[in-house]
Amino acid sequence: MFEVYDVVLIPLILGIVELFKRAGVSKKVLPFIALVIGIAVGVIYVADFDLKQGILVGAMLGLSASGLYSSAKNTVEKSDE
């Protein structure tokens, strides 16, 4: 089951997505990458291969990381103005 300390997975996913960004992947694809990574982490790590629970938790992780990415990006862009 998802533990409170597993929330640290969100910044980890965010960091991996940032690596994809720096590798030149289109910004439009990055949220989907976050979602896929989140689902993979959810199924393999969090839910120990329980597919239903892993997809649900993983989607939450990936979407949270994607939202965190968007929020951080918007904050930085506003600061530059």
Structural class: mainly alpha
Mean pLDDT: 85
Q: What is the strand tally? A: 0
Q: What is the alpha-carbon Rg in Å?
A: 13 Å
Head-to-tail CA distance between termini: 43 Å
Question: Shape from CA axes?
Answer: globular
Q: Helix fraction?
A: over 70%
State the order of secondary-structure elements, H for helix, E for strand: HHH
Low-confidence stretches: none
Main sheet summary:
none
Tally of separate helices: 3
Beta content = under 5%
Protein name: Membrane protein YGL010W
Keywords: Membrane, Transmembrane, Transmembrane helix
Transmembrane segments: 29-47, 53-72
Organism: Sporosarcina psychrophila (Bacillus psychrophilus)
SSE layout:
Layout: H1 9-22, H2 30-46, H3 51-80
Helix pairs in contact: 1-2, 1-3, 2-3
Q: Care to describe what's here?
A:
This is Membrane protein YGL010W. Keywords: Membrane, Transmembrane, Transmembrane helix. The chain crosses the membrane at residues 29-47, 53-72. The chain is mainly α and 81 residues long. The chain contains 3 helices and no strands. It has a domain at 26-73. It has helices at residues 9-22, 30-46, 51-80. α1 runs antiparallel to α2 (30-46). The termini are far apart. The model has no long low-confidence stretch (mean pLDDT 85).
